[in-house]
Amino acid sequence: MELIDGNNVLWGLFISALLSSTLLPGGSEILLGYLVSQGEHNRWLLLGIATAGNTLGAIITLGMGILLAMGFLKNRPLTPRQLKTVTQLQRWGSPLLLLSWLPVVGDILCLMAGVLRLPVLLAISFIALGKGLRYYGVILISG
Questions:
Q1: Cα–Cα dist 17/101, whole Å
Q2: Is 120 exposed, middle or buried (0-12, 13-18, 19+ CB in 10 A)?
Q3: What DSSP string describes 49-87?
Q4: Which of 36, 46, 58, 96 is the most core-located residue (most Cβ within 10 A)?
Q5: pLDDT tens profile 76-105
Q6: Residues 17, 50: contact at Cβ < 8 Å?
């Protein structure tokens, strides 16, 4: 089964994690858990690949927020959910991005971090840490 062996499965994990970090659905946790349970790949490698893919997806969402702030969102009212997210981000700042791994809420956090123009490197650091911790939890559970 050449298509699921070697590097192809690692690229699959990366792409699944990237898509899971955007508004598109993905099953990166399930794939990561499966790969860990198979024991054919180093757990740290799998953790790094999943975290990198998921973080890259969040960076794309963060970038979309920056672009929105530059033009599209000017003079547009925010929805109540977006307003609540903005208020929380203004209060807690980049550390709130540790929760960027949460379904739906995490996407909004990353988007609004871009809109608010939080310091990009600090934001990415907290995003990566939160996502890495989530995937580490998946690895611990998967055995």
A1: 11
A2: middle
A3: HHHHHHHHHHHHHHHHHHHIIIIITTT-PPPHHHHHHHH
A4: 58
A5: 676 787 777 778 778 888 999 999 998 878
A6: yes
Determine the Cα–Cα distance for residues 112 and 92; give it in Å rounded to an integer. Answer: 13
Model confidence over 36-59: pLDDT tens digits?
999 999 999 999 999 999 999 999
Radius of gyration of the chain (CA): 16
> Which pair of structure tokens corresponds to residue 85?
């997210």
State the pTM of this model.
Answer: 0.84
Cα 69 from Cα 75, distance rounded (Å): 10
Question: How many other CB atoms are there within 10 angstroms of residue 5's CB atom?
Answer: 9
